[in-house]
Automatic annotation (TrEMBL):
GO terms for cellular component: phycobilisome. Transmembrane segments: none annotated. The lineage of its organism: Bacteria, Bacillati, Cyanobacteriota, Cyanophyceae, Pleurocapsales. Pfam families: HEAT_2 (PF13646). Keywords: Antenna complex, Phycobilisome. Gene3D superfamilies: Leucine-rich Repeat Variant (1.25.10.10). It comes from Stanieria cyanosphaera (strain ATCC 29371 / PCC 7437). This is HEAT domain containing protein. It comes from the Bacteria. InterPro entries: ARM-like, ARM-type_fold.
Length: 228
């Protein structure tokens, strides 16, 4: 048996172990073992784990799918669970962690429209960390403007955890556009200033203030050392 066949057999055995797990602990262990081999063949099984009522196994599956990266995205898009909000939340975390621009529409809609706060939270965070370099300049600028408009809405969400994630997303967006669309930073910092004075949750006011400081630091560094 050659090495490739041996590897395939190993992955199949690990997938079988996930499917045959008969307790929460054995499922977690089986998923962790499957994640370790980093095989694209594991994608369908890891995606299925997202729908199980086992947070530990789901976290391990999310980490494994993010590590597999781009090949996960089309499969996960085509197998989104529309009825299980827990699975959608985990899937949204995967999209956020991978950052593929092809998931932008999903994240934009989820951030403002999903009834689950965990989905909206993951989407808001993910919108800030899209891998913008994979888009050409013109569509990138347009998409960044759309993300800004969406996050400015999400920062008014009724759930504080979602608003917090939107602040994190806005800071990441500001860092991404500081050299190409500085006018967007002005809108972001204006919103942070508003939050610092009007947001009822102290933790969000503090996070907005921290974001302001970090953006200001980046701006001054860019200005002083433009070639570095």
């Amino acid at each position: 048996m050659n090495h490739q066949s041996s590897t395939i057999n190993q992955v199949q055995q690990l997938i079988a172990a996930v499917n045959q797990a008969d307790s929460a602990d054995s499922l977690l262990s089986a998923v962790e073992n499957l994640v370790e081999v980093r095989s694209p063949e594991a994608i369908p099984t890891l995606v299925e784990v997202l729908s199980y009522n086992n947070p530990g196994a789901a976290v391990a599956a999310v980490e494994g799918l993010i590590a597999l990266g781009e090949p996960v995205v089309p499969y996960l898009i085509n197998n989104l669970d529309e009825y299980n909000y827990g699975a959608r939340a985990w899937a949204t975390r995967v999209f956020a962690g991978i950052g593929e621009p092809s998931t932008l529409d999903i994240l934009l809609k989820a951030a403002v429209g999903d009834f689950s706060q965990s989905v909206r939270r993951a989407a808001a965070r993910g919108l800030g960390i899209i891998r913008w370099s994979k888009l050409a300049p013109e569509p990138r600028m347009s998409a960044q403007q759309e993300v800004l408009s969406t996050l400015l809405l999400v920062v008014q969400d009724g759930e504080w955890v979602v608003r917090y994630a939107a602040v994190v997303g806005l800071q990441a967006l500001a860092e991404a556009v500081r050299e190409t669309q500085p006018q967007l930073i002005e809108k972001i910092t204006a919103k942070f200033q508003e939050l610092i004075t009007t947001e009822p949750e102290p933790v969000i006011r503090a996070r907005a203030q921290l974001a302001q400081i970090r953006i200001s630091t980046l701006a001054s560094t860019t200005h002083r050392f433009p070639n570095e």
